[in-house]
Design a protein that fits this description.
Strand content: 15-25%
Shape: elongated
Strand order of the largest sheet: 7-6-5-4-8
Helix content: 40-55%
Length: 331
């Protein structure tokens, strides 16, 4: 089936690239054998029903193929003739890459970027892009996949919500999903216009316009439950030129803290907390006492360490952490 579709797409691309005038659906349908066969297979029942089913089968297949070719980068023009008939063509000058010259450093940077993504969808896209660059003149003596150091960067994506949100950000499509706040026992629906995705400290975050609250919000993908559903409507709020996801999340996590908190931390645990500590004192019995910067959102971060952390002071931070733990226990 995959080979048959690839052959069908290739034939459609060749037809659109090889014509000097727009070709109508009817002409394309009669020129490509796969469309002829699909039209025959789609017709069952009476002659009238057979013709309608045949047309529907072809139209669905043609629209999918046209979208797939455009997704692959083919520029397909839609032209309306004087008699109102719609035709399609792909001009060669619109589908020709300009000369591309890359030095060794630029090629290495592209190879490094392709290595970053580990999930199948983006890995395939990155590999395909490098193949196109190779065909367009990437130096033969440069291997974009060659290791350039002892460390190999990786951006793990475990959340099922990542891919639909990535596509929604790209296509500017509003989404709906169920989201559980750290202080809530149960998730609640959110209607969001997604702007950007960013990774911070191993977690993915989405920034966008929350329609229910009428303001910008940042959502942690691991707290999205269920399926992300797209909505056909357009955005109602303007997208800012710069979306500061990391800065927003960092401020929540106490990166801009101007106070200190005192916590007990189990020995051998909580290394991210130890890295931020301004003072550490061994208490014995498997516990240490740490002084760490305290800013907005520190309570949410401390909850992630569960029973390995006990807040000593200030009292309001201890109360916030206890409230969050109780909410988790109820959920």
């Amino acid at each position: 089936m995959a080979i048959a579709k690839a052959e069908r797409l290739m034939n459609l691309a060749l037809c659109l690239l090889g014509t000097r005038r727009p070709l109508s659906k009817r002409e394309l349908r009669d020129s490509i054998e796969a469309y002829v066969e699909a039209s025959r297979a789609g017709g069952v029942g009476s002659r009238a029903d057979s013709g309608a089913a045949s047309d529907d089968s072809f139209n669905r297949m043609f629209e999918r193929d046209k979208d797939d070719l455009r997704e692959l980068g083919l520029v397909i023009e839609t032209v309306e003739s004087l008699d109102g008939e719609i035709g399609y063509l792909a001009r060669r000058d619109s589908n020709r890459l300009p000369p591309i010259t890359l030095d060794a450093e630029e090629a290495a940077a592209l190879g490094l970027a392709a290595k970053v993504w580990q999930q199948a969808r983006l890995a395939g896209a990155a590999s395909g892009a490098l193949q196109k660059l190779r065909a367009a003149g990437l130096p033969e003596d440069v291997d974009p996949y060659e290791a350039h150091g002892a460390l190999e960067p990786r951006i793990p994506v475990h959340e099922a919500a990542f891919e639909p949100l990535m596509l929604a950000c790209r296509d500017r499509r509003p989404v709906v999903f169920d989201y559980r706040k750290a202080t809530a026992a149960h998730p609640e629906p959110r209607h969001v216009e997604p702007w950007a995705l960013e990774c911070w400290r191993g977690h993915w975050y989405l920034a966008g316009f929350d329609r229910d609250r009428g303001a910008e919000r940042v959502f942690r993908l691991s707290r999205i439950t269920g399926r992300v559903r797209s909505r056909g409507a357009s955005f109602t709020a303007s997208v800012p030129d710069v979306v500061t996801v990391r800065e927003t999340v960092a401020s929540w996590a106490g990166e801009t803290a101007d106070r200190s908190a005192l916590i007990r931390l189990r020995a051998g645990a909580g290394y991210p907390l130890r890295a931020k500590a301004t003072a550490v004192r061994e208490l014995g019995d498997g516990w240490d006492e740490l002084e760490i910067p305290y800013g907005h959102g520190l309570d949410a971060w401390l909850v992630e360490f569960g029973p390995d952390v006990v807040v000593l002071e200030p009292a309001e931070l201890r109360a916030d952490v206890v409230d969050r733990l109780r909410a988790v226990a109820k959920g």
